[in-house]
Amino acid sequence: MKQTIKCCDFFGKMRHHFDWFTYQDDNGQKVYCMPVLKSCDGHTKLRVNNCPSCGKEIRNIELRREK
Ligand SMILES: [Zn+2]
């Protein structure tokens, strides 16, 4: 996956633990954005604003599959 914001290796390894909102860009490609964590009750979504490892602000990060 290509990240619009460069972060540490750790983020790439743990990004599947997050829920991602998705949309389709102009090329019809699926884009993953706004990582969130589900809370224990399963309803509340906590937005991930910073990388849990290096603390970089990743609030506006987007992921696209490599071509
Ligand atoms: Zn990081």
Characterization of the model:
- The chain is mainly beta and 67 residues long.
- It has one helix and five strands; from the N terminus they run E-H-E-E-E-E.
- Strand 2 (19-24) and strand 3 (30-38) form a beta hairpin.
- The protein starts with a strand and ends with a strand.
- Residues 7-8, 10-11, 51, 53-54, 56 line the site of zinc ion.
Largest sheet: 5 strands, antiparallel
* Distinct helical segment count: 1
The outline comes out as globular
The Cα radius of gyration reads 12 Å
| Separation of the first and last Cα atoms | 9 Å
Low-pLDDT runs of 5+ residues are none
The mean pLDDT is 93
β-sheet strand percentage: 25-35%
Task: Characterize this entry briefly.
By secondary structure, the chain is mainly beta. The chain has one helix spanning 9-14; strands spanning 2-3, 19-24, 30-38, 45-47, 62-64. Strands 1, 2, 3, 4 and 5 form a five-stranded antiparallel beta sheet that branches.
Task: List the keywords.
single chain, mainly beta, five-stranded antiparallel beta sheet, 5 strands, binds zinc ion
SSE order and pairing:
Elements (H helix, E strand, L loop, with lengths): L1 E2 L5 H6 L4 E6 L5 E9 L6 E3 L14 E3 L3
Antiparallel strand pairs: 1-5, 2-3, 3-4, 3-5
The structure holds zinc ion.
The site of zinc ion has 8 residues, from α1.
